[in-house]
């Protein structure tokens, strides 16, 4: 018979190791069981098994619009979840759920972390943009204050960009809408960010345009892989290294007025860090604004009935206020047209994405565990008949008429998010892409920029689609919705009536 010597050093060691293992493992097990119970209580759309999760991810990537619409119809005022490869995305629907997200603190729901996951910034940009977002204060203060004073420069670049890219001719000319939108927005945004002559440098513009596209494309590729394979995918399957090398070349070039540093003396950073921040700002400034402008341009060409009312407003405003930020802000019909274009076809399937940092409970009692991402199905929300009368009909002056009501003259603007209009998300972080652009500069500058571009088109050109009233189909890449990358718009010099 073998007896245990409970007083021996070996036994004591084993007991201590066992207690240490239990101290670590039991809380983890309890946490796992609690997390599993929370997730199980949230309705699932699509398959959710270990292997079937791959099917669910594939379906979400290839048919996100149909899946999100199904979820919106089933749970119009609640939440549901969709399985990804190694995690879940929880979709919230309805005003109450959106308000819950808006009220949550950054310690509960974090937009930066969600943006970092979506764009895989660790591999496409630089993780330091999330850990140390010092560039935000730089963008927020001096750049935001100068929107009005430097709007004349943006206007000057608008005129020059259109003259170079779309010379006004008597006959109709086919223009590729998507690539031209990127080129025009690239020039006008860069006139504000880096000034002349760099904003017109073909190599610089080509780098910025392709870098912005490559960030989103690379992120989509990386997100097709489970977490443990993301570093490999990020290293070998993306197009980022070539863009980094090209950007580094510009650090050695000089041009009149080249900035020495974008921060204070105490914020000096090395070249790669500065590169990542400049390119990060460019990504936000160019990609989102370009696709929005392209979609708005399609809507303008599809609705010739709005042209004369918009032209009359623009002409009357410019006559009094000129081509200024103040003048652009007075163009209410143009603002309504842009907002309706954004509502109708300018939003992604998901917006308002937040990473759950602490277990978060919605007002209906549903608890979402930490580590999961929450989003709101914007496209479906904006096409909800309960929120918008004739929601599937494009009404260019829908919001203009709302602003004409007593006491609502400053409401319903394109820059103003609310619980029914969530193009820019909601709350203080609206349209703040992982802190690369501040809320103020983000949506305000982009809206003024796009309105200025559309106003210039209306004053200088006639536009139409190849097939009257038929907008080239939008392209869905997962939950991302982009205007057609192959569609064309016909331009000619404006013909006086």
From TrEMBL:
Pfam families: p450. Keywords: Iron, Metal-binding, Oxidoreductase. CDD domains: CYP503A1-like (cd11041). Gene3D superfamilies: Cytochrome P450 (1.10.630.10). Its cofactor is heme. GO terms for molecular function: heme binding; iron ion binding; monooxygenase activity; oxidoreductase activity, acting on paired donors, with incorporation or reduction of molecular oxygen. Belongs to the cytochrome P450 family. This is Cytochrome P450. It comes from Gymnopus androsaceus JB14.
